[in-house]
Design a protein that fits this description.
It is a single chain. By secondary structure, the protein is mainly alpha-helical. The chain has 4 domains: 54 residues; 46 residues; 48 residues; 43 residues. The chain is built from 12 helices and no strands. The longest helix is centred in the N-terminal third of the chain and has 13 residues. The radius of gyration is 27 Å and the shape is elongated. About 4% of the residues have low confidence.
Length: 193
Amino acid sequence: MKWTEEEIAFLKACLMAHPIPKVSEIMGRSVYAIKKKMVELNLQVSVRTKTQKSSDWTNKEIELLKLGVRRQRSTKSMAKSLGRSEKSVRLKASSLSLSLRYDGWSDEDNAILERMIEDKKSWKEISIELDRSIQACMKKADVLLLDKLKPMWTDEEEAKLLILKEQGLTWKEISIELDKSVFSCRKKYQRMK
């Protein structure tokens, strides 16, 4: 976006009173855009504002970062809205012991998964209810140690496993048919041979 003469004059005035992140916020431009224009115009930050480094985080920025983490916003979108680099956001989050890793499962999703497993629902039913793949539901249950609530192999399931394997079905097809993980089916088959 091209800078107008008015914006350049406003930039010069802002730099006399505010640090670069604040100027970025006021002008609605990224910190990078502000710094780039400063280099082009050979502008300096006022001595008064040099005491606050552009890398310093304001309390408002920290609160916005915490809010973004709670809402599970991506690092990229938080960096853009804060006028900071993704690296800066990651480093600040780390220094505040905030995790930027999300598995996409809300507390409500976890509760639904646990309830459905306790109610002995099939993985297919769970998958449909949560709008996720069967494998994703099984993996999450394993992480939450919920799979222990599911019953072990029955004699009927063992017999069906042998029949399905003899019919030439893939492990994925067998796992869906038996409502078990691919790994569980493969391991059970190897033990039965």
